Amino acid sequence: MSAHATMSGQEMRDMLAAAAAWLEKSASDIDALNVFPVPDGDCGTNMLLTLRSAVEEAGKVSAADIGAMSGAVAKGALMGARGNSGVISSQIWRGVAMVFKDKEAATASDWAAAWTQSVETAYKGLSNPVEGTILTVLKDVAAAARASAEKDESIVHLIEQSMNAACESVARTPSLLPALRDAGVVDAGGQGLYTVLEGMLHFLRGETEQMQFKKSHVIASSVPVSAKAVRLSPTDEEPFGYCTEFLLKGENLELEKIRARLKRKGQSLIVVGDASTIRVHIHAIAPGRVLNYVTKLGTVHKVSIRNMDEQHEDFLALQKDRQPMIDIAIVAIVAGDGFADVFASLGAAGIVPGGQTMNPSTKEIYQAVEAAASDKVIILPNNKNIIPAAEQVKHLSGKTLAIIPTESLPQGVAALLAFDYEADFDTNVSRMNDAKAHVRTVEITHAVRDTKINGFVIKKHQAIGLLDGHLAAVDEVSDKVLADLLAKSDLSRVEVMTLYYGANTTEAAARAMADSLAVKYPGRQVEVVSGGQPHYDYIVSLE
């Protein structure tokens, strides 16, 4: 095939059969890349079953033309699509079939056009496309295919360039999707697409015998990734619902109308197909309502309803199994992506989103403790309102627990910095308690209502400053409040000031503030870190 500039239908079928066999070897590795609560923890398996169904349907076609064969591939993929990744895969092959329709054979230019059409078809089927996933990888594949077709008529060269582009694109996915970066993995769907292209290329090069003794590799991220701390969703108390999938068959089915109606009944919605057959994937709290609606439109087939709350429990257990056992684990309650990165980089094994106005429940803290790969766990609440919930975990877990009563994020950072990996549990608890006591915390936020307190008359939305939790300054401008509060404080023993700026504060504004403090307080080290915390313009650590 390497010298061929065209591809027949039979060659396409055999190529995809080889690709399916190649994907099968790596399906479990791709499954393991899943990042919950992103749906479909069996991404590799779902893509494999979808491709198998496509190949099986193609095997029923006796015609040699690629138009008929690609049509069968698209039909089989749609009928056998499973999970989010499987449905998207079916749309890739539908796009290919749209370009190959009525063609005897396909050229490199046809393949370039097919991948391009696949991008449009795949995006159109999703209610909320997300970059950093298989969609982004598919776009990069299409771009590489177009560039290859302009310079070379070889289909083998085009698939090779497409595969290389997929590899590079998959490696970049953590830079586009924070959930991937936090977990230290690449996108599972993108990895699956790369593996399929790799299998296609092996076949076209005549390397089927070698394929029996090898398997694809998992692509490494091209960007630095965060420490693999288990990060729980801030909505763990809300049910995930049911992953609901089915085929709807009927006459004159209106795709857009059905998509619009189902959009109000759940999330992660995919509606694809045509006027006679539609494949639906949706996450719904009440799947019965979804089925009640579609049964009025036609007949429903291949119904699959899976409880995602059970999947979540399985995920927590899997995360624990993936982590190497450690002697002592740290679980921290943290507000803001920047602070989460700080705690993870310092060695926290579990991150629970929470803080002011968003206190996590005992259940959420307990889940993080149980997910930690250690029988000894130290909890950093980092907020005085969260300490009671953390204390309750002692009565639920069978692990050896200690709660360091940190009342602010800077105290939590100081405690974590004091942790000694070579010391025993009791020694570390003592060291961390001592360290948090030597940090003062300044917090700049805004009043939510008019009030009078501590001699201050406060108007709603005014900037207010708290020193170690006590109101100490009020003004219209956050920077002025911070400056006034520091001026009132005893900084004689302070050596380092760290400004963690919040989600609504720009880096430029924070650095300007830091520069002014460095001038006003010479001899002190002033650092700027993105905290990303909500509600608070600045959280300042004085050490």
From TrEMBL:
<protein>
    <submittedName>
        <fullName>DAK2 domain-containing protein</fullName>
    </submittedName>
</protein>
<dbReference type="Pfam" id="PF21645">
    <property type="entry name" value="FakA-like_M"/>
</dbReference>
<dbReference type="InterPro" id="IPR019986">
    <property type="entry name" value="YloV-like"/>
</dbReference>
<dbReference type="InterPro" id="IPR050270">
    <property type="entry name" value="DegV_domain_contain"/>
</dbReference>
<dbReference type="InterPro" id="IPR004007">
    <property type="entry name" value="DhaL_dom"/>
</dbReference>
<dbReference type="Pfam" id="PF13684">
    <property type="entry name" value="FakA-like_C"/>
</dbReference>
<dbReference type="InterPro" id="IPR033470">
    <property type="entry name" value="FakA-like_C"/>
</dbReference>
<feature type="domain" description="DhaL">
    <location>
        <begin position="10"/>
        <end position="202"/>
    </location>
</feature>
<dbReference type="GO" id="GO:0004371">
    <property type="term" value="F:glycerone kinase activity"/>
</dbReference>
<dbReference type="GO" id="GO:0006071">
    <property type="term" value="P:glycerol metabolic process"/>
</dbReference>
<dbReference type="Pfam" id="PF02734">
    <property type="entry name" value="Dak2"/>
</dbReference>
<dbReference type="InterPro" id="IPR048394">
    <property type="entry name" value="FakA-like_M"/>
</dbReference>
<dbReference type="InterPro" id="IPR036117">
    <property type="entry name" value="DhaL_dom_sf"/>
</dbReference>
